[in-house]
Amino acid sequence: MLTVNINSVLNLTSIIFFIGLIGILLNRKNILIIIMSIELLLLAVNLNFAALSIYLDDMVGQIFVLFILTIAATESAIGLAIVTVFYRLKRSIQLEPIKKRALTKI
């Protein structure tokens, strides 16, 4: 059986988390990349919960993973539905028209 050191798993999850964070911070124009970056953040958190749950021999982390997966699935479905409707209306998924429109209504 293959055993993996907990430090290597935590390093992997932190790398995945920071890739998602950099994806959100550096790309503010394309909403699909932002949604994928949020999914990377949630994946890193889930992997961290699962690894620590196995390492500490506790089921609570795995229960949190199930809750986070359901929230991530609904977030993706709702986000992609909004993007689809916006694309049908404006023929673009760039965030600049959304920001300009939101600022003019305030």
UniProtKB/TrEMBL annotation:
Entry's localization field: Membrane
Membrane topology field: Multi-pass membrane protein
Gene Ontology biological process terms in this record: ATP synthesis coupled electron transport
GO cellular component: a single term: NADH dehydrogenase complex
Superkingdom field: Eukaryota
Keyword terms of this UniProt record: Membrane, Mitochondrion, NAD, Translocase, Transmembrane, Transmembrane helix, Transport
NCBIfam families per UniProt: PRK05715.1-2 (NF004320), PRK05715.1-3 (NF004321), PRK05715.1-5 (NF004323)
Family that this chain belongs to: Belongs to the complex I subunit 4L family.
Protein name: NADH dehydrogenase subunit 4L
Naturally occurring in which organism (per UniProt): Phaeodactylum tricornutum
Gene name in the database record: nad4L
